[in-house]
Amino acid sequence: MQKPKPILLVEDDSVDAMTVKRAIRDLQANHSVINSVNGEEAMKYLTSPDTEKPFVILLDLNMPKMNGIEFLKVMKTHPELKTIPVIMLTTSKERQDVLDSFEFGASGYMVKPVDYSKFVEILRRIFIYWNSSELPENELLLAEIKH
Amino acid sequence: MRDCRPILLLEDDTVDAMTVKRALKELHILNPLVRVANGEEALVYLKDDGREKPCVILLDLNMPKMNGIEFLKVAKADEKLKRIPAIVLTTSKDDQDRLKTFQLSIAGFVVKPVDYVKFVEAMRIVNLYWTLSELPNSEQESANEKLQANTAGRR
Fold it and tell me: What CATH number does the domain containing B38 carry?
């Protein structure tokens, strides 16, 4: 069987990033986690030719340098990257953040609960949903763009 | 789903539409189901300010008049409609369909299983996800939410 693709976690807080990694381990989700600390770093990862493109992107909102919305604006207009699903994972319940995220192409907006078991449940549902959803083949996309 | 607004279903096949309705009922999903038979009808519904905007859109791809991809091209370029999550629900396993719809910012692509029990399970997963995810609500609903949050905080 093919090795599952990694998850790209864009999160500046190291404790929060550790919590995500721990939850993924607890779920035995099998996806490896790549942690970028802001949008700029995430774009660097995504655009470098030798890195494996992620299965999904989990995106925080408030980060230095390039925040979540700024990252969405760049990534969702990039022809090779725009098809990767992005799920917001944030503590913000601001309506404007929800509206902006969906406006710029997010495919889900999860508010991080304080409680760890609830957090695991959120990640579980994200994985079940995106594992049962069909996803575009990056290879096909690359072939189309090269034409 | 997270709120009680309708679910808009774009499906030209009456039997398939009934299967969706039956599955939602079985899962105790209380959102009203508004069914339209193609993209053109969906746009008429969505652009009518007298009708409540849906919380999510479930759409088939192969439909007469205006198909799913043609509908997405219009809806996702419309300032008032682009934020509504659109989930493809189809029997198509075509690679190009997947690619084109993900390029148009869809929020999921469900290949309809032929088996009814499996179909209900697929809808259950969709509901679990969209019950947790915040949705881009209207102003009025966000005001109601704030009120509820305040009341909960005082308890």
Answer: 3.40.50.2300
